[in-house]
Specification:
four-stranded antiparallel β-sheet, alpha+beta, 2 domains, about 350 residues, Phosphatidylinositol 3-kinase Catalytic Subunit, Chain A, Domain 5, single chain, about 15% strand
Length: about 350
């Protein structure tokens, strides 16, 4: 078995579990260890898969007859292919090339996408169950919300349930903070993968389907802070200090943004860096993403992006002292759609507290 970056073998895994590194500098950050073990490789592979807590994860796994507890097996079943990077796993006897298997250009198994978005059982043919034909990004797309990748004429788009992405987009734009932009999915897009009954249910609970274009590529990968932290811990580095060194302004922007949005979901897989595949080097922070759990009513939310367990407010105030971000753009914009008057007032109040 091999771990490859496109068509370049980076790691050989022998039958006895011995790991032979071929290209250390382009390994995934979580595997850049001088004495890599098979157990560590298995943990990395398992970490690439969807969480059982994700909406419709069980439906996806059950339909594909994949285990709900052996995440390494799930990863191998889809060759570890992801839209976050260009790594993949090739077992002995698999003669496929990157051009034949990659998710960036090849068709998906759309019946899996439909399950991922709606949870609805879909009929399939027996040959679709061959593990070498499980060609989908849904098994390696992280996050908890119902979501699915749709290929459109101008690229790949992630559709998800998450109305708060829209006001977060507007607010971050007003603040001049780099982020992934979302739009509300069109009716013709929604009807292609959701039944009318499901659409009515989503509307009934006050939610909407939104989408954003893929922000990685075959040449540029996402390295989550979770994986970066594993690398730093291996070499005795402080991951938070190292992250800040990469781009101090982007790191501080994140502290201010998360407080103003009152985002309680900036976990270690929800922020990170871009990596250049050709060299294996980090090139900077990726734009901020995933804000469907923002605008919570909770007060005193603990920051998950600082070394010490401080409040979002405290982290934002410290960041503002260094940055002096211009927050006046919020006072010049209208109340964003999908926010209540009370939520918008809370946004403005948090901005006033940070700028005071």
């Amino acid at each position: 078995m091999q771990l490859l970056l496109k068509d370049t073998p980076l790691l050989d895994i022998q039958d006895n579990g011995t790991c032979k590194i071929r290209d250390f500098d382009r390994l995934p950050f979580g595997l850049r260890k001088e004495k890599l073990t098979f157990v560590e490789f298995m943990e990395w592979a398992a970490n690439r898969t969807l969480s059982i807590g994700r909406s419709y994860a069980k439906e996806i796994l059950n339909t594909l007859r994949l285990p709900q507890s052996n995440w390494y097996a799930v990863c191998k079943a889809c060759r570890g292919l992801s839209l976050e990077d260009s790594y993949w796993i090739r077992e002995e006897g698999d003669g496929k090339t990157w051009d034949e298997v990659n998710l960036f250009h090849n068709p998906f198994a759309l019946f899996i996408t439909e399950i991922s978005l709606s949870g609805r059982n879909v009929q399939y043919q027996a040959e679709q169950m061959d593990r070498l034909t499980i060609h989908t990004p849904e098994l390696t797309t992280l996050g908890a919300s119902a979501k699915g990748w749709i290929r459109e004429e101008d690229g790949l788009y992630l559709h998800k349930i998450g109305k708060y992405e829209i006001p977060a987009d507007k607010i971050l734009t007003a603040l001049g903070i780099s982020h992934i932009s979302y739009r509300v999915s069109k009716e013709e897009e929604i009807s292609s993968y959701l039944t009318e009954e499901r659409q009515q249910w989503i509307e009934g609970v006050g939610e909407v389907i939104v989408n954003a274009r893929l922000f990685t590529s075959e040449d540029t990968a996402l390295v989550t802070f979770e994986e970066f932290k594993i690398f730093c811990e291996t070499y005795g580095l402080n991951a938070y200090e190292e992250a800040r060194k990469i781009d101090p302004e982007a790191y501080l922007n994140m502290q201010i943004a998360d407080y103003i949005l009152n985002n309680n979901d900036r976990h270690e897989q929800n922020w990170g860096f871009f990596m250049e595949n050709e060299t294996g080097k980090l090139t900077g922070f990726c734009p901020m993403f995933d804000h469907d759990h923002a605008f919570t009513d909770y007060e005193n939310v603990i920051s998950q992006t600082t070394e010490q367990p401080v409040l979002l407010y405290e982290a934002a105030v410290d960041a503002q002292k260094e940055l002096g971000m211009d927050l006046r753009g919020l006072n010049e914009m209208e109340q964003p759609e999908y926010l209540s008057e009370g939520q918008w007032e809370q946004v403005l109040e948090r901005a006033r507290r940070v700028g005071a």
